[in-house]
Specification:
Elements (H helix, E strand, L loop, with lengths): L8 H21 L8 E5 L5 H8 L3 E6 L2 H11 L4 E4 L12 E7 L7 H14 E12 L7 H16 L2 H12 L2 H8 L2 E9 L4 E8 L6
Parallel strand pairs: 1-2, 1-4, 2-3, 4-5
Antiparallel strand pairs: 5-7, 6-7
Helix pairs in contact: 1-2, 5-6
Length: 213
Amino acid sequence: MTDPYKPLARWYDLFVKLPASPVRTRAVNICPLKPGMEVLEVGCGTGSNLKLFQQAGCSIHGIDLSPAMVNIARKKLGGGADVTVGDASRLPWSEESFDLVVAMLTLHEMPGYLRSRVVGEMSRVVKTNGRLLLVDFHPCPLRSPGSWLCRAVILSFEISAGREHFRNYNHFLAHQGLPGLINKNRLQVDRYYSAARGNIALFLAKKLDLRTI
């Protein structure tokens, strides 16, 4: 496979850092982090999100399809991080390996048929008492100039990422975004927050205990 992020990888943090920083901070703050926690990020990119978990004392792991992005993440995170090139629909870890599994602004990039499979894999590798942190664009009603402006900025990024990327983004929103995936994979939401004037949703969820049904 060709790496579509290879031409962009070295510049990615420069363009994404400023708009992504408030969302990253909020995402980390809603997690009950403790030193030594095992954290996996699906679609880890250049490792900027994992760096925040690393600074909190967590043991960090990441997976991404882009070798160029993974190379940058490895340099950023150092030898103590486990970052690999791979397919999130077939995670190379055993069941109940992690205290927290994260997908931050990555599920919308995937073709529709893969998303639920990836969330299912995330559920497989998270511990019974662990959590999934899902952060992505949200199909909110646009009720203020601020929400319209945020949507316009998001659209500019998504369109510039290419035709296939933009098609996947539209499909994601048309199928209820994260709430649709949460319902399909029978997850239970612990906490919900919004960002970017409602255009981004943050869900902290866990596997549903089927014994209570």
